[in-house]
Amino acid sequence: GDSVTQMEGPVTLSEEAFLTINCTYTATGYPSLFWYVQYPGEGLQLLLKATKADDKGSNKGFEATYRKETTSFHLEKGSVQVSDSAVYFCALGHSGNTPLVFGKGTRLSVIA
Amino acid sequence: DVKVTQSSRYLVKRTGEKVFLECVQDMDHENMFWYRQDPGLGLRLIYFSYDVKMKEKGDIPEGYSVSREKKERFSLILESASTNQTSMYLCASSTTGGPNSPLHFGNGTRLTVT
Q: What is the distance between the alpha carbons of residues B75 and B24, in angstroms, rounded to a whole number?
C-alpha cells in the first residue's frame, strides 16, 4: 500500500538557519503531495501542495518540489523563525475520495 | 473560514465508561474524518464518512464506532474506554474534490482514560 516516510525529529535550529525536512513516498500511480503544519495547541492546517511531477508548492517562505524520479517531496525554508516551531506532516493522496496517507510528523524547534 | 469545532479540549474518563467525542463543521463539507495522534506514531485514521449515515473503517477502528446523523456532525464513540485509548483525537472535514480539497482540522480533544 501507499506510505510516506519522513525524517525523524526533533529538529532544533537557530533562527535564520536553513531548514530541510526530508519526505519520501511509495505509491501507485501519480499521487498529489502535501505538507501540513501543526502549531502548538492546534489542529493541522495545509501548508502547501503539488499535484504533479516537477510542480513546486510554496507558502509562507516554505517550498517543496515534487520529484517523481526520487519519489521525494522535501520541505525547505531559507531562513526559519521562532514562529515556525511546529510539527510538520508530509502526506499523499490519490484522485477520488480515498483518505490522505500521512507521515509520522517531524517536530521543529527554532530557538532565538 | 471553515471552522471545525470539537466539543471538548480535555476529557478525563474512567476505564469502562462510554465516551462520546463530538465534532461539528460549518462549511457543508461532505467528508469527515476521525484521527488519533500519538507520539512516535503520527496520525492514524480511525473512521471516516463521505455522506450522512455512511461510515468507513480506517486503519485502527477496533474499540471505536461513529455516528453521522447530520451532515455537519460526526461523533466518535468509545464503547468501553480503555487506558490504551488515552490519546489526542483530531476531527477533520473536506469537500468531495478528492485529495486536492484540503483537510480542515479541529483543535483536538485530549482524552485521558484512568
A: 9
